[in-house]
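User: I've been going back and forth on whether these two constructs are worth ordering. Before I decide, could you fold them both?

Assistant: Sure. I'll take them in the order you sent them. The first construct and its structure tokens:
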Amino acid sequence: MASRILVIDDNAGIVEIIRRALEMAGHEVKTSLHGRDTLELFDSFDPQLIITDIILPDTDSIDTIVECRKRKPQTKIIAISGNGHLLSVAEKHGVDHILPKPFGPGQINALVASALN
């Protein structure tokens, strides 16, 4: 089943890998390389799922996760990071799943399917 998914990461290569994998699986994907526009995209695109890096240079991702949870609690959130400590912090702030970097397209699609079911 196709879903609307918002992907946020400041690494364009990672965003492209995730976008391609998700679109090939039939999902509608919007992406951002900046955390600062996440809430605007969240409100306008109304995604069922957000995949976000925890470390973004222009915003506090944890604050953004908390705000998205307040606005639409049913939205699923997957946090990605190369820092295991930050992933545990994200879990404490309401993300549904975590995925340590590096990962492959198959891993992201499997986790997305799990999160959306």
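The second construct, handled the same way:
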Amino acid sequence: MALLLGGVLSLFLSTHTLAQQRRTTTTTTKKSSGGGGGGGNGYSTGLGLRAGSPSGVTIKHFFKPSIAVEGIVGTNFNRRGINLTVLIEKHGTAFQTRGLQWYYGLGGHVSSYSGSYYYDWYYDKKGRRRYYDDYDNGTRFWGLGIDGVLGLEYQFQELPFTLGVDAKPFAELARRDAFFGVEGALSLRYVF
């Protein structure tokens, strides 16, 4: 994790001046041509950290002014493994506030874990279904799922960073089980 933070900091320090020049050029191009390849917040690509579920690295790239693709490589700390998620997101201005964007999207994920907390159930003596937490410390297993996302993202006006929060409902097939849930996280990205 320290190596990852060092790499992000190094990227920030080495490209800060270049990012400011690009942002100025992109803004001028958009004003003169009425279009552009940057996102609705005025950046093309953002790279950063995601804290929540899953936690890890996030990268977002706009390939149209309001459409972005986001990749997340991370882990859920109650599982030992990795998760790769790709989302296509639609962005729009939120609450008529400069720099604030809402977004929603759809995508999928693949995951690999070597054990997991999960919910199991049994029938008690009165015939009622009871749920409990359990932990499978067995062999590695793979999961495949569908993800949605709904979030808000704010781009700081004087800094090349965005701060975002999202909720990410998902459905996953793993081994013989299907899981449904909602994950959420806070993301900080360096944008250029």
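Notes on the second construct follow. The chain is about 15% helix and 60% strand. Residues 165 and 186 are 5 Å apart (CA to CA).
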